[in-house]
Amino acid sequence: MRLQKKYLPIILFTVVVPVLLGLDFLSKYLTDGRYLVVIPRVLSFSSHHNTGIAFSWFAGAGLWLILVTAILCVGSIVAWWFFARRSVFASVAFALFVAGGFGNLYDRIFHGHVRDFLTLTFFPQFPIFNLADVFLTVGTILISVYFIRESFRKEKGEFS
User: In the predicted model, what is the mean pLDDT of the chain?
Assistant: First the structure.
């Protein structure tokens, strides 16, 4: 029995989210409380706890950040379902964003902070981050690309 093409984006989303969450959880577990130079003068794993968001903005905001993150995660799933579930590209983009959001949400709820560990040693002013942050960033960029591309298609009269 052959998989119908229309279900591929939905299957991708439902598989990619838990796989990425698993990678995020595993990476945080393996690096928590540890320091490791991965590539000298480029990348190291250095365990840090962040109660805020990027650059430690809103540090200590606790419950407020949990609520905002939960709303954004659920809202992203709803947006994907209504606007982009037929696109493989958009499904992967939203899966990245949702996995990143839920990865950091889990940390906030069960640890009281986000566990960061990726340190760009060649750029010491750059904040320490984690895989969930990477997923969120890449997902945001790809979602933006998707909607910009769709707006151009609609402008030209093309429909996907």
Answer: 89
Question: How far apart (Å, rounded) are the C-alpha atoms in residues 50 and 128?
Answer: 9
CB atoms within 10 A of CB 129: 19
CB 106 within 8 A of CB 66: no
Residue 33 CA to residue 117 CA, distance in Å, equals 9
Cα–Cα distance between 88 and 72 in angstroms, integer?
Answer: 21
Reading the block at residue 99, the tokens are 């996995």
User: Where in the sequence numbering do the catalytic residues fall?
Assistant: 116, 133
Contact 73, 108 (CB under 8 A): no
d(CA 131, CA 24): 6
Tens-digit pLDDT profile for residues 61-88: 678 889 999 999 999 999 999 988 899 9
Contact 54/126 with Cβ under 8 angstroms? no
